[in-house]
């Protein structure tokens, strides 16, 4: 959602912001009037407007309390707007990155994807909450107070408006250099973080090669470069803050200079001057808010550009308009091609058939598996499962239709049970226990409540592969994809898996190393030299189940 769309969608909140500004201005004027009467009464002067019904000390105290309440309410409202905007943007960005991120990210890529959710969204929250909202408040308060002063003192109001315009022009002149140096700081900070992350990951190599000193020197050079550009930015930000924070003093001096002669001539009471001084304090605070918005605009603008680039990433699989071929069952690949294929191919598999996806390393087996699993889009062509096109399926439908076990589709931090049910949440514990028993995995520690903070470190390779397989098979999806997960399974489990697959009701596509799994294939799709060669094959022999083994033993 753009900032303009957000404002339109939150008209009531922003109307409340303007209403708060009006109340704040009214309170400031009431306070100025109370201070003016309080001083005039204290020195024995008769105020021009005598509100005998209300003691000036009481009215001043009441105005101060009301000013405190309106200021606190404004802060709550502005922060709420910033948080609401970032919340909507965070959810939208998360959904988009999930669909656009190119598969499992490396540590470096993961860090780059995390940065927007930490640094960039924080900068945007500050810009919307402390920037846009406070800019609106500051402008409204300043304009209204100058309008009020112009009623009795038009010359002073004109001078104040001209001074504010000059201060704003000076602040805007800093914008260009501040934008450039902010980008330099972000670029050098990102480079420094990447350098440290890469070197820490290769710490063993650095120590073994005796390069600790030279790497520390490189880090020192990068750190000094970052300090240099950061100091440039500090000077510019300091100048911007100096302009905003000195604005109250500038207006105070201007008021005293202009109104001092009026006091001498008896045209203005000291109380009126003191009242104007209190208004100068309120305006000075409003101008500081406006200066703060200038300061936050640059990092917010840069962060917006980064977020926009991420949101412009094309999704891996573009959802198409739903079409149906209800008469078709099984798996159909219509004029399909991936990056490794020189020309498109038509492939077909019926329910109950087991496809062995074969070919030399780097031939494109994993790419085709990812295409069948809906993880990435094919270069061209369509994938149909039981009469429904894959790219037109909703998430819940694809969840029911496809089970994929692959190390490219890793487990999540959580519990074993959460991971097992992640694709098929309605699976019962009894169904899980039954499948574990059928697969001969009862000896593994696969208790549902077992916690996995870091699954790859908390599980053995066989346990990890077993959970991948179980997660894919729960619910017997019409298309089952097993991508090189058999290598870590114990021999007994691999044989039971083969026996289970040989009677599987849906289409099974496997890339396997174990003979027990390769021999049950009914068809072979071999990818080689940019082409696919499909062939039918007889099973070498039936794979005996566990009960058959017992019978033979007798």
From TrEMBL:
Membrane topology term: Multi-pass membrane protein
Residues passing through the membrane, by range: 12-32, 52-73, 132-151, 157-178, 234-256
A GO cellular component entry from the record: plasma membrane
CDD domains found in the cross-reference section: ABC_6TM_exporters
InterPro entries: AAA+_ATPase, ABC1_TM_dom, ABC1_TM_sf, ABC_transporter-like_ATP-bd, P-loop_NTPase, Type_1_exporter
Location in the cell: Cell membrane
Source species, domain of life: Bacteria
A Pfam family: ABC_tran
GO MF term set: ABC-type transporter activity; ATP binding; ATP hydrolysis activity; ATPase-coupled lipid transmembrane transporter activity
Keywords: ATP-binding, Membrane, Nucleotide-binding, Transmembrane, Transmembrane helix
Domain ABC transmembrane type-1: 15-297
Residue spans of biased composition, Basic and acidic residues class: 535-554
Disordered: annotated span: 532-554
Domain ABC transporter, residue spans: 324-554
Location (main, coarse): membrane
SUPFAM superfamilies given in the database record: ABC transporter transmembrane region, P-loop containing nucleoside triphosphate hydrolases
Stated name of the protein: ABC transporter ATP-binding protein/permease
